[in-house]
Amino acid sequence: MKLRQILYSQGFGTRRECTALIERGAVSINGEVQRRGDIEFSVDGLTLSVDGALWPFHAQAYLMLNKPAGFECSHKPRDWPSVYELLPMPLCLRPTKSSVDGVQAIGRLDQDTTGLLILSDDGQFIHRMASPKHHVPKLYVVTAKHAIDDAAISALLAGVVLNDDPEPVIAMACVRVSETVIKLTLTEGKYHQVKRMLAAVGNRVEALHRAQIGGLKLDANLPEGRWRWLTADDLAQINA
Ligand code: URA
Fold first, then answer.
1. Domains of the chain (ranges plus CATH)?
2. Residue 229 Cα to chain centre, angstroms
3. How far apart, in whole angstroms, are the C-alpha atoms of residue 168 and residue 173?
4. Catalytic one among 101, 110, 112, 122?
5. pLDDT tens track for 11-40
């Protein structure tokens, strides 16, 4: 692939901006500054250096973010900063087939929810993961205001009716961690589902953390507010 196309595909700006970066000597490969945008490179295992920062080539982007509280999962946030502000610019400027939208969060977490968020620029992957037919279990650690008794756990497992929805929603699993903390596994992703399920059993969510999607756990070494690329193994874990 031509160097200018490589930079464009990775989100380093418009084609013109990528050419300008190359011409001013900002781009090197294997320690050698490259000043011509039309030189071809194999992208297999390629790592670019742009203004001294290393950038491994990814044909498509798949990442996990450890979402902190106080961030909205929206490109146009209303009241809080956007999770996209936690990502480097190239991830937000990656061109997709139809536009330059960058990566998108798969499913939204509330502003005050923390933990595992997956983002990608692969339209098919996003569609598949977000589809209501795709029942990937999501594990939440829920801290409730009041003690969660056995009756509440049984009700969550048997199915509870949410305020605006006649169909009961069922927890796939519900495990007590302490008097006020449970691990709740859901296969659907209805709006505010965990909070509404806890409300349906007369309780209230005080803190909510997503720890796992499918078999993929939030990386314990990833600090809050930080992201990392997903490996092929991570991707396989999602559906494991
Ligand atoms: N359920 C909620 O209520 N909020 C979230 O952020 C995720 C699931």
1. 3-56 (3.10.290.10), 62-133+216-238 (3.30.70.580), 137-213 (3.30.70.1560)
2. 10
3. 15
4. 110
5. 999 999 999 999 999 999 989 999 999 999
